[in-house]
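Bumping with the actual sequence this time:
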Amino acid sequence: MRYHQETKHHFSRYARALGYMDWANQPDPFRRYEGSPLISLPLLKPDDTPLSPLYEDLYRPGAIASAPVTVRTLSRFFEYALAISAWKQAGEVRWALRTNPSSGNLHPTEGYLLIDTVPGLSPLPGLYHYVPKEHGLELRAELPKESFTLLMQEFPRNAFLVGFTSVNWRETWKYGERAFRYCQHDVGHAIGSARIAAQTLGWRMLLLDGLADDTVAALLGVDRPEDFEGAEREHPDCVAVVWPADQASDVATGKTISLPLSLGPDAVRELTRHIWHGKANRLSRDDPVQWEFLDQVEIAAWKSSTEQRVVELNHSRPAVETSAHAPSIYRGQPRAGQVIRQRRSALAFNGKTSISVGSFFTMLARVMPRVDRDLCRRPMPWDALPWEPAIHLVLFVHRVVGLAPGLYMLARNPAKVDSLRQAMHPQFAWTSPPGCPEDLPLFLLEEGDARSVAAQVSCGQDIAGDSAFSLGMIAEFESSLRRYGPWFYRRLFWETGVIGQVLYLEAEAAGVRATGIGCFFDDPVHQVIGFNDAMFQSLYHFTTGGHVEDPRLTTLPSYGLDR
């Protein structure tokens, strides 16, 4: 709590960090493990197999058949989850854009794969580090077959693990005390992009949230000081299990199976007793500035416990919902791969573009986790987060045709409407907008021009007022930390990142653009809404509208492919 309160207005310390090092001084923004064998993944064009489904099919249960786990499907998975989507160039300076967004495009998030034998990778199970620059997998360790089988024995056939870590220094040098929060946002975006990438292949994904951070670190090899000597360390974040949806044979017959949210400690210990490959490369030329306060935050938010929880999976395959004769809700019926590859973070909005109220309602429907359903029956990507959602949206609506401008609230858990209402200004209207779907708990709080206040609370940034709408993500803050413990602080940011990832793609599919806003003033946001304690807390802002291209920038294709 102290960390969040003390960092919201403090610009001087991270301004000194900005002066200390410029990103151009970074010799290589890509983490590599020097000495690790690199296996290049095939570079696939859009019309190569596996083909991308329609974007809206991502949200139609049963519309996408499960693809087998092969080198080609893994290539598509990482392409859509973590790969370079394009290069930007201004003069002599060139930088990469990726399918997963990042604060300041600094990309602290690293991806790992722990998988059984796959032809074209290795004759043995292995732990791999994904390298986006080469679109390849670095072999960190070959694993004994029997150990891997023991580790995965409670999961569906052909399941594999995906892990995420953060090189916090990538954010710290620029953002100082805000860096830890920003890294957690980015983890959430990566979780969202990975779940969506899995869906394009008919795969399921579940975050193994019962794991302790020590276990995550050991499993991914980031607890090995000898492999990071002289290099920036990686913070263990999370591990998820991914599997082809039709490989759970019991589920296919309508039976209920239980999936653990953790891994057997004996099996994890066995996997760490093998030969490791590679040493982490150094990312910065100078020694990193030490932020003792951030070290304290990492310790405070460390998850030291392991929960032996399970989730029940009983999701017999529904009939495919075909829509060959139904009008698409997205203009031009874009494919998922197209939307994912073209996602960009807007730098400016034109202050003119509007969106339809139908598009607006669709965007909000996509972030609804449908808490009345069992986890396995919740819509993608909310079926991957095994906790009750704790984030709600306060919206500044500016240019939505068919909807009055003003301040709105979306309660992502309808059961929390009363507690939100009691915590906010008593004069708010709390009325349902005309035409709002019955199952969308969206409420008009106050009608009026919200452009100026939206920009003011977002550090004076015009993008919050020049858009069609902007929003703040409001966390059930104090109650969540009391219920779970300080480690759940990070999960709140992960949930906001997944929300942001969904909205990024929804904006692209609707013909507009979006961007996250990490800089905002907590107290003014709370004053606008009426919060006067720590029960609810603003964690992340976001904005969507008609973007303005910068003519000084040149866009170059990723990996030399015109996509």
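The tokens above came from a reply further down the thread. The radius of gyration is 23 Å.
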